[in-house]
Specification:
By secondary structure, the protein is of the alpha+beta class. The strands form nine sheets. Strands 16-9-1-18-17 form a five-stranded mixed β-sheet. The longest helix has 22 residues, at 150-171. The two termini are 34 Å apart. Helix 5 crosses helix 8, helix 9 runs antiparallel to helix 10 and helix 11 (421-431) crosses helix 12 (435-448). The protein has helices spanning 14-22, 27-38, 120-123, 135-145, 150-171, 186-202, 231-236, 254-263, 321-333, 361-374, 421-431, 435-448; strands spanning 2-7, 45-54, 57-66, 69-70, 76-77, 84-85, 116-117, 179-180, 206-209, 212-213, 215-216, 218-221, 224-227, 242-243, 249-250, 266-267, 273-282, 292-300, 308-316, 338-345, 351-359, 381-386, 391-399, 402-411, 414-419. 32% of the residues lie in helices and 30% in strands.
Amino acid sequence: MKTLYLELGMGAAGDMLTAALLELFPEDKQRDIVDMLNSLGIPGVRFVQERSVKCGITGTHMRVLIEGEEEGGHEYIHEHEHEHFHGHEHEHEHEHEHSHGHEHTQDHEHTQDHEHTHDPAHAEGHIHSHSHNDMAGIDHIVNGHMNASASVKANITEVYKLIAEAEGYVHGKPVSEIHFHEVGTMDAVADVAAVSFLIEMLAPDRIIASPVNTGSGTVRCAHGIMPVPAPATAYLLRGIPSYDSGIRGELLTPTGAALIKHFADDFGRRPAMSIERTGYGMGRKDFDAPNCVRAFLGEALDDASYPAVFELEANIDDMSAEEVGFAMGQILKAGALDVWTEAACMKKNRPGVILRLLCREAEKDSIIKAVFKHTSTIGIRESLKKRYTLNREISSVDTPFGTVRIKRSEGYGTERKKYEYDDLAAIAESRGISISEARRIAAHSVSKH
């Protein structure tokens, strides 16, 4: 399965995601890809790929120029009577020194200390955010200007709907009344469009993201001091595993959160996969760790051989052996890979068993329900395990006494085969012979073929 994995240990912003995805293309093709981005028809926008080195690692930083300038270089404070989504994606909480800024999303509130007031004269000839500060404006850019597929346009619109929903929740207003601020500016639109376009070109079957580092502390805003993650970002984080590593600053921008929320199919550790290419999308500021989004593209193992499994265990000291046996059967039916018990001495010196099982994440919830339903336990413990398996296939061989299935396993320099016990037992019983004799007959039939 073609899998895209996004490692978000230093947060996420639109330009960092764009750069990481761009690096997943062959190096000799990247210039052509940038030309394609510049042909999307976003008014006044030009993408510029730059090399960047962080902690000795070379990656890509993506600049977005608006009419030849980095729009983030002019930090305007705009006074309006209506509410805005004040995004400042290009800050990566200022912890990332983006001169153009990540997506121009988080509160313009997240402006730097050198805030500027609006100079109308400077805005002449410069495509500015005010004409695109609501969903209608975004729709006009996407459907009125962009040279992109219908699916790319739909993804851009859906990402902005997520942002509008978050801002509506924060300000207590319906989406129809939400006005974007920096998140509506052209470089922010460019970031969302670029990520949507590159993902369509890469065409992964599945996108998995790591838990995302949000940063911590507070950020000075036009409306006061705001906590990190900012309120709209926190709303977008619902259902997304996140954490604070102790880095002071805003690592996750609203646009970054919205892009991850829209495109990621799942969250967790990087799966076992044959990596074909790795991409580094760099921020601007330096930290002790490389300030980047890292992307992996490759083939992941299918679910049948996926090595990461959950081990669940429960203590039981008040069930009979028959009841435990029945419960084990029901748990297997619920999708457990394996179930077993271990003898243990419980509280008050009562003999009991520890029920243990292995399962995949997809079946975990149904299996937990089965354990509580069919056992007397009141608590289940969970741990994540690495699992190494041989590749397996089942074939069959015809013997004079019937068909016998054969399980073949190989990998890690090992090959083995095993005859299905139930088939051997049926032959042994019907012919009045031993299991070992039935196995010899099956082996002889295999050798003849």
